[in-house]
Amino acid sequence: MNTADNRALRGLHVAIIMDGNGRWAKGRGLPRLMGHREGVHRLKEVVRACPDLGVQFLTVYAFSTENWRRSRREVTGLMAMFARSIRREARELQKQGVRMRFIGDRSGLSPVLQNLFAWIEDLTADNTRLHMTVAINYGGRDEIVRATRAICAAVAEGRLRPDEVSESLVSDHLDTQGLPDPDLVIRTSGEVRSSNFLPWQTAYSEYEFTPVLWPEFDRTEFERVLHGYGLRERRFGAVTA
Ligand code: FPP
Predict the structure, then answer these.
(1) What's 191's DSSP letter?
(2) Is residue 175 annotated as a catalytic residue, yes or no?
(3) What is the pTM of this model?
(4) What's phi and psi for 72, nearest 5 deg?
């Protein structure tokens, strides 16, 4: 079954680069963390809207491997916000049938956060209404390096032959193992870059860039972007009749 046929059997996979929290806060004379806090509200709004809008998979970029370069205050604030949000929202996510999953290099995160990830992944493991994946300490190149190391180790130990390395085998060694590739990537705040977000998985994805800052990305804007996507034709390199 090719990718296009496969898509018809499931809901959409939308990936989002939630950008512009800092600028939103600055524009209001507020600390950057207030922008992130407002961003959490928009994320909750988008999560709630997904099932109604035919989105079954949602993957969001919350913290990149490059984001450690921000001020210590902002990094600490973001980490605390992730932990608080997981604790606060667990019950609601469970009620909404959301399966939670985290991608990225967990070994670089605090044990508290690592335990919370494992706890909520386990709690929501049987949910299917929405598969939500949050990228934290995630970098696409880093993910590919980690996958390559695992594949090389399997070859070195004689568990795998080099000619058995295929696209699907590589996919199975990425953090996103088992998830379909994104159909659509949305980036807010007017920046037109992919910033190391899912480089392998988005090889055939559509992109939509909106000038709206993430703290202002509400359900109406989400619907507008999805509507625009629905009008596009995806051919996966083939020629339509
Ligand atoms: C980018 O805006 C946004 C972030 C680095 C953080 C995004 C995180 C959330 C919205 C919360 C997610 C919460 C959970 C629990 C998953 P920016 O700071 O780069 O904005 P700027 O480009 O205007 O400075």
Answers:
(1) -
(2) no
(3) 0.93
(4) -60, -35
